[in-house]
Write a structure and sequence with these properties.
2 domains, globular
Amino acid sequence: MRHSVNHAEGSGPGGAAVIAKLPPTQTGWLSGVRDPDVGKALTLLHKQPAHPWMITSLINEVGLSRSVLAKRFRHYLSGTPMGYLARWRLQLATQVLSSTSQSVAEVAREVGDESEPSFNRTFKREFGVPPVRFHTQTRHAQHKPDRGRVLYQRLQKCCGIVEQL
């Protein structure tokens, strides 16, 4: 996904061509990237996910009013900019938890959440398991591929985890 953001900004060959071919009525992440203002917001959120973003700082960077940015985000991504950021941070956290030995507190700070208890509640609400259990199961699952694949597939199905960030 990070690679897609970079291409969507026009920094890679062919990225603009792919986005330009989307129908004007298309919604979704790629269509949001095509919108200059939503695309700028997405780029900022993806490049600096741990930044202490507030809606006011994001709208100042993008140069839109709060209501216009919120309306465009809802149109393309069916949610708010801050909701999108929260889900993006959780996606990043699943990657870090499943691929490193960092503690849950370290991961929470790395993805921009200064409160470990808040991170724990949000993670469990989103994925159905506390981050420490996810961390333990996915790290343990690396040694048992079938069990890890089943857990990861369940999380993909229920929560839309993307394989490659």
